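Q: Convert this sequence to structure tokens.
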Amino acid sequence: MYKFAAACPTESIVSGASRPGYTAGQIQSWISFTKGQGIQRVCCLLDKDQLVRYPGWLGCYKQAFGIENVFWAAIADFETCNRTTIQDIILPSLAA
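A:
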């Protein structure tokens, strides 16, 4: 469900999942599913143009997982992530 899988076959900590649907119910189902998989931290990779379709989405994540456990690293589809985003957002969230 949600294409949920480990980041690689030998990974036991970092997983990935596709985004939920657009409705509040679909977002809550996604949150329930991921929490059921033992996920405690979320790093959203949607860029600002995609995220605008989800008003309040990051707030829902922060409420469900805790404000200190939700990160946003805007990366456009089919684009390479810049070094600053990796160093300042993604790697620290993974390290924590």
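Residues 1 and 33 are 8 Å apart (CA to CA).
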